Amino acid sequence: MMLEPEERRFDFSRTIGRISRFDFLVGADVDGKFVGFLSAKRGNANRIRNTAYVVVGIIEEFQHQGIGSQLFEELERWAKEKVVKRLELTVMINNYAAISLFQKHGFTIEGVRREAMCVDGKYIDEFYMSKILD
């Protein structure tokens, strides 16, 4: 995930206000506790409106419980409704849980963004991943 723990103060109502008609946001809760989200932003220009950039985050203690799969199912429903053909995202190459989730949902690695992130003073590569929808 791109955000450090102290940067994760997620304000759902403020975020909803920034969503345009081209965007998607869904949250996940367990027993009333916010535990994750998935957002997608489509291109505004006609030529790239078929592509959406995806960001997903799930609190670690709630990973591996099917929440990510539920979020991706909602994303794909939205994408088909909005005629989105391509979903794309980036993920740190050492985030094995996320990579596994993305591959489980049909994403493939397209390339590497070298030294794209700096975590604890160390530069980390990211995979660029995508999924083409039928």
Automatic annotation (TrEMBL):
Segments forming domain N-acetyltransferase: 1-134
PROSITE patterns assigned: GNAT (PS51186)
Protein name: N-acetyltransferase GCN5
Keyword annotations: Transferase
Molecular functions (GO terms): acyltransferase activity, transferring groups other than amino-acyl groups
Domain of life: Bacteria
InterPro entries xrefs: Acyl_CoA_acyltransferase (IPR016181), GNAT_dom (IPR000182)
Entry keyword Signal: no
